[in-house]
Amino acid sequence: MAPESMNGLPVTVLVVWVLCAAGWGVVLAGLRNGLRGASRGPALFAHTATPAGVVLLFAFLGFGSLYATIALTAEWWSLLAVTGFRPERLLSTGGPGQLAAWAALTAATAYAAARFVFHV
């Protein structure tokens, strides 16, 4: 049976952090391998700056970084699911339908993950 907490930190929080880091890495690898040309540099910079920017935004709004981490995890894994693990497709061939699918899947995933983590 798995421990309920590790040194006082709930295991679900650790799982969210690991999934967030893994999702960020997979999206970064997809962008590095899939993008070419003038859009590559800005896309990689924006992706690299996103975690710090989102955590700072959530702190400014008064939410904790756990909410930001859950939101980012949902966004990255939803992006990978919608684009078939090729995130550059959203930039090159994606349209409003694919963007809407990404937004809807992100919202549903973030809601479910927050309910799971906070046991609401």
Automatic annotation (TrEMBL):
This protein's UniProt keywords: Membrane, Transmembrane, Transmembrane helix
Residue stretches spanning the membrane: 12-31, 52-79, 99-118
Protein name per UniProt: Uncharacterized protein
